[in-house]
Protein 1
Amino acid sequence: MSQKLENVESIRPKREIKGWLSLPDFIFIIVVTVISFFIRGIVFPLFEIPFVIFTFLNAVFLVKPPKENPKQKNYNMLWLILRRYFFKEYLPFRSIDVREFK
């Protein structure tokens, strides 16, 4: 009767396959690789297989968490960079020039 009760943080099962690779990430890698396999005809014939391998490696890189922010994925960090520099959503702070208000 001396069972220890513990708080449950989450009752949802983790969808991790191994380490940092989760099920949605694995499906993303498979889908990108299959798409690259089907469009390999647009590449010079000598480079078709390296194209598929390179696309697979890029997909693996995108789903890995970066060392600087291990709670995010590389594709999330890439999206933040694109939003900041191309869509101008997060403009840097600047000092207020008093002459602008006169």
Note: The CA atoms of residues 47 and 60 lie 20 Å apart.
Protein 2
Amino acid sequence: MAENWASGFVKGGEDTAAELERMGKRVDKATKQALKKVQGLASRSIKSGMRGRPRWDHRGASSRTGEHINLGLSPHVAKKSGGPGKLTGSLVKSIKGSKRPRKVGAAGYSAVVMAGGKGGPQNLYKGKVEGTYPFFKPGVTKAEPKMPAVWNAAWAKATQTKK
């Protein structure tokens, strides 16, 4: 690679170029950390909307969904439910974010929050539950107003700017 391009134009250009390089690395690190924090915000918000009373307090054994479950609630069947209830907790536990943000292009990162995974009983009914008692989209919508503050704080620290 050629000589430092800034050294010929500005006195102290090498120092400036080195600092810009360090700042770029700090911004990349801050972006990954902010992505993880935002994922956590979204996951917690989604899960908070899934803690209602289940419509039924029992389920029979099945080769697809596992062993027999009986919560012993009274009454055994609720006529109406305010949202998705937690019978086994497998759907709630399946809400998670990607482990590591992935590099996208020259200056971007990507990460996801998802319900379900490679298998398990939650994949059998997550779409039906979301269709009947939406939990994913309202949870993300509830978390969105808090997200800009996370990004602003992370990038301000990385670029050493004052508010």
Note: Strands lie at 58-59, 69-70, 96-97, 102-104, 108-110, 113-114.
